[in-house]
Amino acid sequence: MIDLRHLRTIHALRDTDSLHDAAERLHLTQSALSHQFRELEERIGMQLFVRKSKPVRFTSAGLKLLQLADQVLPLICGTERDLGKLASGTAGRLHIAIECHSCYQWLMPSVDEFRGAWPEVELDLASGFAFAPLPALERGDLDLVVTSDPVTLPGISYVPLFGYEAVLAVDNHHPLHGKPYLEPGDLASQTLITYPIERHRLDIFTRFLEPADIEPAQVRTSELTVMMMQLVASGRGVCCLPNWALHEYSSRGYVTAKRLGENGLQARLYAAIRSDMLQVPYVSDFLLTAKDISFATLEGVNVVSGLAI
Amino acid sequence: MIDLRHLRTIHALRDTDSLHDAAERLHLTQSALSHQFRELEERIGMQLFVRKSKPVRFTSAGLKLLQLADQVLPLICGTERDLGKLASGTAGRLHIAIECHSCYQWLMPSVDEFRGAWPEVELDLASGFAFAPLPALERGDLDLVVTSDPVTLPGISYVPLFGYEAVLAVDNHHPLHGKPYLEPGDLASQTLITYPIERHRLDIFTRFLEPADIEPAQVRTSELTVMMMQLVASGRGVCCLPNWALHEYSSRGYVTAKRLGENGLQARLYAAIRSDMLQVPYVSDFLLTAKDISFATLEGVNVVSGLAI
DNA sequence: CGGCCTTCATGAGACAAACTCATTTTTTTT
DNA sequence: AAAAAAAATGAGTTTGTCTCATGAAGGCCG
User: Fold this and answer.
1) Chain pair A-B, CB pairs under 8 angstroms
2) Chain A residues with CB inside 8 Å of B64's CB?
């Protein structure tokens, strides 16, 4: 019944105050608009504006339609602009969510650099404990999710960012201090502190403890890394973190890092994005930047990690 | 470029998960939708959804369009419904503003009765000190304004509601008490309390004092009628009010009402509405109700007004 | 693994909607 | 009151949108 054409017309009519001028602005003839209005008015069964008056006066129905136009037309225009930008690849949106708090540490430099290189791109960063990021990525509410858990989903691609080693933080005078590396059984008597997420998303369980069928003496959770570190340092538990996240604490001698298993618990972070975004220039650029920067940031970590092997 | 048709189509596609079913829901053929998408994708230069997949997966561009559809389509539907209701006259909107606080007194019963008779009509009442109500009425933000000052405007009609007499409230032991009616000069020595609006909208000035070129000794303002009454009762000033607004105070002997001029200061309240709304059934019904009720409410007032003539 | 079934794409043609042109009617201006 | 401007109307044409018929591509299942 109502069409965008009608909204554009009535909007132009308010601005120009005459059918003739409105037609000109819309690159149409006065006749076209006259027909258009007559037909629409027939359909809704009411007049939309008062003819015999200058300036034009709208009826209640016309005003209602105008209010609609004022709401809708900007939305349409905005989306058309956004699509244009998306197609040209010069600008767009990059809403990022990260699954783990510690990721801020290496992500922030990438984000800063990216902001400079692509000022047109609307960049947003959200920490993802509050909601499920992957469905949001599928829905289009998010554009990039940093995760260590690449579950296969149609239309979602995972770009490897960098590998890291998950290590165990223990206090400096811990009994396990002497061992070159820890075995699952060593944790049977320990309190394990984790982020408050499901077990199947924690490598320490899925890839270390569960294969050996070991359960820690106690499991407690904390949302904040610093809080975890306090607990560990005071001997109230141990916790498993990426080596680069632990580095700032272990390198200062606040806690000690211990390798998990003979070869260490190697893991990998991925950027999850909708597959079609891979082609978008600013996205691929961001991924390159992120890889570069994470590499530069973490290079030192692996050497000076304080990892007591 | 983008058309409502496209929004409806992509919206249906998400719900049905296949072009064929989406076409059915839209009472079109699968071919039509296929053509439609191909053409739109050509225009924006990107794919909108991934063909070879079930359920359908939208690209970033498609998701953007979907978000637009979710915003726009409800607005369109809503307006179409509203227009339908407006045309049939069975339901609609009646946003009322009143220019003076005291009007609540007689308006509320009308509003209550109206609510019962026209439950479908979205009724809203706003006190109008905060903004200029007549431009809002012209714009369509308001539908009815109660005013005592019918300035001629194209497209705005004034429906007389009822006449009233503006009288002066004075304290019970006031020196002017003895006079059968007051003359302008009597106010030269008085403190006049008014609502905080421009003088040219106050009858006491435009129709009583200014013609005689008299200025009160002092003018002070108050927003609330009860506050005015307190000031008057304690002898700190006099104030001019409609007789029906003063009635509840004067009839209890709290203050005394005095006629202004030999024949009294007669005034009239009007309902201002956009002319085309006069035809709408619920509007004319409201006007009749308001007239009836105000008449019934005020009838007693004029008799038992305590007006000391 | 090949045939079948479903889904989507494509081209040609039909139909309708929307526009233009020419003209008349109405309104505004001077 | 006449002239000018604006809007309405009717006929005709263009454009766009749909359908029909058909072809191509995936996915399912014996």
Assistant:
1) 107
2) 79, 82-83, 86, 140
A20 touches strand D (CB under 7 A): yes
pLDDT-above-70 percentage for chain A: 93
| pLDDT above 90 coverage of chain A, percent | 43
Question: How close, in Å, is residue B197 to chain A by CA atoms?
Answer: 29
Q: What is the pTM of this model?
A: 0.70
Q: Which of A17, A60, A273 to mutate to test the interface with B (most CBs of B within 10 A)?
A: A60
Residues 6+ apart with CB under 8 A from B31: B23
Whether residue A284 sits in one domain with residue A215 = no
pLDDT at residue B296 in the model: 67
> Between these two residues, B55 and A274, which has the higher pLDDT value?
A274
* Per-residue confidence (pLDDT) for residue A119, from 0 to 100: 87
Question: Do B28 and B125 belong to one domain?
Answer: no
A18-47 pLDDT per residue, tens: 899 999 999 999 999 999 999 999 999 888
Strand C positions within 7 A of protein Cβ atoms: 7-12, 18-22, 26-29
CB-CB under 8 Å, A44 with B87: yes
Q: Which pair of structure tokens corresponds to residue A302? A: 């692996």
Asked whether residue B10 falls in the same domain as residue B130, the answer is no
pLDDT along chain B (309 residues), means of 10: 94 90 91 92 89 81 93 95 87 85 78 89 76 85 88 87 90 88 92 88 90 94 89 94 88 92 90 88 89 67 42
pLDDT for the residue A2? 93
What is the distance between the alpha carbons of residues B96 and B94, in angstroms, rounded to a whole number? 6
Q: Same domain for A151 and A201?
A: no
User: What are A149-161's pLDDT values in tens digits?
Assistant: 888 888 888 998 8
**Residue A233: what are its φ and ψ, rounded to 5°?**
-60, -35
Q: Please check whether residue A82 is in contact with residue A92, taking contact to mean a CB–CB distance below 8 angstroms.
A: yes
CATH of residue B279's domain is 3.40.190.290
H or E element in which residue A248 lies:
helix A243-250
The answer on B127 and B57 residing in a single domain is no
**Residues A216, A209 contacting (CB under 8 angstroms):** yes
**Residue A305 included in any domain:** no
Q: What is the pLDDT of residue A257?
A: 93
Residue A63 CA to residue A307 CA, distance in Å, equals 71
**Together in a domain, A101 and A82:** no
Q: How many angstroms separate the CA atoms of B2 and B6, rounded?
A: 7
Number of domains in chain B: 2
The residues near B47 (Cβ < 8 Å, ≥ 6 apart) are A276, B41, B59, B61, B62
Alpha-carbon distance B102 to nearest alpha carbon in chain A (angstroms): 28
Q: B233 near B255, Cβ under 8 Å?
A: yes
pLDDT given for residue B162 in this prediction = 84
- Assess whether B227 and B127 both reside in one domain: yes
Give the CATH number, domain containing residue A294: 3.40.190.10
How far: A37 CA to D12 C1' (Å)? 20
- Report the distance separating Cα B113 and Cα B129, nearest Å: 25
